[in-house]
Amino acid sequence: MTKGEISKFFVKYLPIMKTGRKKRVPMWRIVKAILYKLKTGTQWSHLPMRELFGSITYSWQSVFYHFNKWSQCGIWDKCYDELIKENRRKLDLSVVNLDGSHTPAKRGREQVGYQGRKKSKTTNMLILTDRQGVPIGYTPPISGQHHDAFDLVNFCNKIFDKMEQNKLRCSGLFLNADAGFDVQKFRELCDEREISHNIDINKRNKKQEDQTEGYLFDNELYKKRFSVEQLNAWVDGFKTLRIRYETKACNWMSFHCLAFSIIFLRKFNSINI
Q1: Which backbone phi and psi does 249 adopt, to 5 degrees?
Q2: pLDDT (tens digit, 9 = 90+) per residue, 170-213?
Q3: DSSP label at 14?
Q4: Which of 95, 92, 114 minimizes the C-alpha distance to 268?
Q5: How many alpha carbons fall within 13 Å on the CB side of residue 83?
Q6: Is 114 helix (H, G, I), strand (E, B) or coil?
Q7: CATH number of domain containing 191
Q8: How far apart are CA 214 and CA 192, in angstroms?
Q9: What does the alpha-carbon distance between residue 109 and residue 151 come to, in Å, rounded to a whole number?
Q10: How far is the C-alpha of 89 from the C-alpha of 106, rounded, in Å?
Q11: Are residues 175 and 59 in the same domain?
């Protein structure tokens, strides 16, 4: 990304530090270093500082300090929210797709748990995409030992509330989800929100099968769900997100918000890093 693009889409949302002194390092260069880390997956200590900062003397510790501080302030989430608000008419909400995404975690600490199906420690996140695979809502990090339906109503309520805040209307949406989300309370939540739900029936849950009697499932429309799988492939293009090494959940979340922003800009503004 160019200096102008980074300044337009990211720097303008960064908090201004009133120190009374002129900044020695332009903010856009620090953001560019963070984006380099996101894309390549390199360790913070291996950032090519001379390539990124030229003749300016700057340390990788300072880059990490700013990233960590901005993550704790929720800056990267705000950047993506503003992208959604300003470009919401470009989204295709004829179909939305919900899925979970487990990331292997090599370090412990916040929101990391053993996932039996993956046979490893993971961190999970629920993501809602439009028909084009663009993320329009997501949950905070969820410890990997929980299945996708864990606290589903609470998490999806937060997704829908955030969408409304970003001026995306939930009423009238058509939502696809796999059998892992075949939960009666979630279906009731969709009904309350006036969201049409096309959720695959979980045939292993006999009790749930009785409750879902009368609900329709359209297999042809369900095939539109491939867009959320496409998003997972795009996210894997950012090497930092293939395996979680970040110990803080907010930092891992922030890298996802940055990746979602780049995916959005690639799709609608022909911008790349």
Answers
A1: -65, -35
A2: 999 999 999 999 999 999 999 999 999 999 988 876 555 555 56
A3: S
A4: 92
A5: 28
A6: strand
A7: 3.30.420
A8: 17
A9: 21
A10: 39
A11: no
